[in-house]
Design goal:
Helices cover 0% and strands 42% of the residues. The chain is an all-beta fold and 534 residues long. The strands form 8 sheets. Strands 3, 5, 6, 8, 11, 12, 13 and 15 form an 8-stranded mixed β-sheet that branches. A hairpin with a 2-residue loop joins β25 and β26. The protein is rod-shaped, with a radius of gyration of 46 Å. The N and C termini lie far apart (95 Å).
Length: 534
């Protein structure tokens, strides 16, 4: 089967140079990669790129780090402490504690510092994703960093992301396809507050204490005694959606760092800061199930979507939409349907795919027609109903048949054949006819069948009683006003007991009875005396 594919990306990818292809694809095709447009990219290889350093007691510098634990990635970056420029050790201004302070240049005591991007125009960007490379090694729990966002050019700031667990997260980590390596601690002390010998510090970042921390384990004396497993252990790429920045013309990003006054280490380095407009790849396959109705199973093959919305292409009927990932859908009837799947990215981007699928009949039996076997009943006679099944949709016998007769429900089980025969029925209305086959598949007949009572006023006329001599014979005659068949009893002495006129030669005085049955099934009875004279 070949399906028509239409992909609509609700953004401005085309004007940003992302080319979309339209055409015919097999129903099981797959798409690879993310439709992404890089809006902002700063790798600091040619300078600081308009970024600024600020805050209280900032130790940030630009260059290639020579710190003991933050190993350079081969290109310049922004780092706390030593980024290739020798700095004075901080311990003279802080509490003297033992520790590895004889080599390397560390971040400053009571530091509340940041590096801040220039203004970035995200007008027209509907699904922004921030990514940056980080390398972290600092006192666990106490010192650390986080990222903040401004959508008004730096007038106010808000934290980007949270970390909800009370325990450390070890890198690498992934929350979803858009949030990777983002924070590993929910309570980094010196991202706010003035404890730890920093009571004179009034500078604050605002927000909460979620951030990156670790790499340096604190000894009882307060020294950084040994490495722990909570730092990044080298360079990692951290990513997070910045939904609040969508379509904003004056966006800024800043990485903030906070430290106490006793334990010092390398801190944090950042590189390769990017903002991209990202969208999910949306795709699905479908297959018809071997079920009673026209039922289709859909498999969602979308990549990097937070939510989905299906439209099954039959507006006006119930259950035309679904938000399930892999829905199973019962269609109202066989046919060709246009199926639309919309996927929404974690960062807010929306992608749409539309395919035409063919839905065929299910396995349930289908009723072609229901008929009574005669046009009416007279007196106490009974009739039958025949239920004809469609030749290609006869279901699986045996069948159970349910029907309503003059307001009363009845059931017959174990029926087979085509047509299905329901016999011994009285005059009246038969409706709500339903068939269930051996697999539990059911079908319903929307109409009704009426077996009428036929009072057609049949009249039977016979000859008079007759007297004959022994050994003689005489003619018996009968006629009706409606075409009928005849039956004389007893048959002894009659030359033709099923004819309207017959010759009787009885050996004794006899009473003959004649029954006339007309074409409507109605009957009339008469008696005829035949007296024999000796």
């Amino acid at each position: 089967m070949t399906s028509i594919l239409v992909i609509t990306l609700m953004n401005n990818l085309v004007k940003r140079g992302v080319l979309l292809f339209f055409g015919l694809f097999p129903a099981t095709f797959s798409l690879v990669g993310q439709p992404t447009a890089v809006i902002y990219n700063e790798n600091f290889n040619s300078g600081i790129g308009g970024w600024t350093i600020g805050g209280y007691n900032a130790s940030w510098s630009y260059g290639i780090p020579t710190l003991p634990n933050i190993v350079a990635n081969g290109t310049p970056c922004l780092a706390t402490g030593d980024a290739g420029i020798a700095q004075a050790e901080p311990f003279t201004a802080c509490l003297p504690v033992p520790g590895p302070s004889t080599n390397g240049n560390y971040y400053n005591c009571c530091e509340r510092s940041f590096v801040e991007s220039p203004s970035i125009n995200l007008t027209g960007v509907t699904s922004p994703l921030l990514s940056l490379d980080i390398n972290l090694y600092c006192e666990q729990t106490f010192d650390g960093a986080k990222v903040q966002l401004s959508i008004n050019g730096g007038l106010s700031w808000q934290d980007i992301g949270t970390y909800n667990s009370g325990t450390f997260q070890v890198f690498p980590s992934t929350i979803n396809c858009r949030e990777q390596n983002w924070y590993n601690k929910n309570n980094v002390n010196y991202l706010s507050g003035t404890s730890g010998g920093c009571g004179t510090v009034s500078y604050t970042f605002g927000g909460d204490k979620n951030g990156w921390s670790g790499g340096c384990a604190q000894a009882a004396s307060g020294a950084c005694s040994s490495p722990d497993v909570h730092g990044t252990n080298g360079w990692v790429t951290a990513t997070h959606c910045i939904v609040e920045a969508a379509n904003k013309p004056n966006v800024k990003i800043r990485v903030v760092f906070g430290a106490g006054s006793q334990v010092f280490s390398d801190g944090i380095a950042i590189d390769n800061v990017k903002i991209s407009d990202v969208f999910p790849i949306v795709n699905f396959t479908s297959s018809q199930l071997p079920s009673c109705g026209p039922e289709i199973a859909f498999t969602n093959n979308s990549d990097c979507a937070a939510s989905w919305n299906w439209n099954f292409g039959h507006p006006g009927f119930p259950d035309n939409t679904s938000t399930s990932s892999d829905p199973i859908h019962l269609f109202p009837a066989p046919g060709i349907y246009s199926i639309a799947l919309t996927a929404v990215d974690y960062c807010g981007g929306t992608s749409l795919i539309t395919k035409l699928i063919t839905v065929t009949e299910g396995l349930a039996p289908r009723i072609d027609s229901v008929k009574a076997t005669s046009s009416g009943l007279c007196n106490s006679a009974t009739d039958s109903i025949l239920i004809y099944l469609a030749p290609l949709f006869q279901g699986t016998p045996p069948f159970s048949v349910y029907y309503n007769y003059n307001g009363n429900n009845s059931t017959l089980n174990g029926l087979t054949g085509n047509p299905l025969l329901i016999s011994g029925l009285q005059p009246g209305s038969y409706s709500s006819i339903q068939i269930d086959d051996a697999n539990g598949c059911e079908t319903n007949f929307s109409g009704s069948v009426t077996i009428s009572f036929n009072n057609d006023s049949l009249e039977l006329i016979t000859s008079n009683d007759t007297t004959i001599l022994a050994g003689g014979s005489a003619q018996l005659m009968a006629s009706t006003n409606i075409a009928s068949s005849f039956s004389w009893t007893p048959i002894e002495g009659l030359d033709n007991p099923s004819a309207a006129t017959t010759i009787a030669s009885p050996e004794n005085t006899t009473t003959y009875t004649i029954i006339a049955t007309d074409i409507n099934g109605c009957t009339a009875i008469s008696e005829f005396w035949f007296i024999l004279m000796m």
